[in-house]
Amino acid sequence: MPPKRKRSGDEETRTSENDSRKSYAYLKPSVRRIPEKTVKTKWTTLPEPVQDKVRDLFHSLERPVIVRQQNERKRIEAQSAVRAVVHNLGKRLPRMPFPPITKDSNFDYESALNEHRALEANLATIQDSADLLRAEIAKEEALLAEEKQSLQEMERNAKRAEVERKRQMKNEHPVLRKLDDLPQTDRQGGAEFTLLDIKKSQVTMDELGDDPEVRALMKQLHGHLQSMQSNTAPLAGLSEAITRSQAALDLYTTPND
Hints:
coiled coil
């Protein structure tokens, strides 16, 4: 298996340059195809002062090319070639068409920075608003969860109450069930009191006496009545004695002067 080839210094430099370009913004060259009609109708030649500056720029390019060559002969050849190119460009410069100066043709770095700062400020404001909205949504969701839990608890309590009511109805005394079946009075006529006909009533004393629970209750009430009667027996003649004493006092009462 052949050994792996080591990276050269140029490849490492190129890789580091690519990484640095990814970290920072940079201008990327692009090619635009301009129609010939647009060039002939809208493009114009440069003014004389601008042409002079362009010629000076061409001449300034000669020095780096000449200094780069160490051999005297090659230096002379490079200087001759560069001068020929500069001379040809200088002759064509007055006839060269250039696009009109527009806003997009000039790159203002400071304006770009200011616009970038403004966009960052707007982004920060929007992010803060989004965070506040998320917090409010989380709060409302928590309240909704609590209300759902309370509703479920109320539903469970209602079901338990319904089950308890049905259980109590099963254990209800038959007499109370018959009382529930009795006809109800008309509530629209105000607070009227109606006595039921004893003959038409379905509940009789004989039926009540047959029930052991009712019989025990009646015995208990009878015992209470007898106890009350025995407690009030010594006070039976007290009312008559008070009346006689009051009459005797009235006989000896003297009129006021």
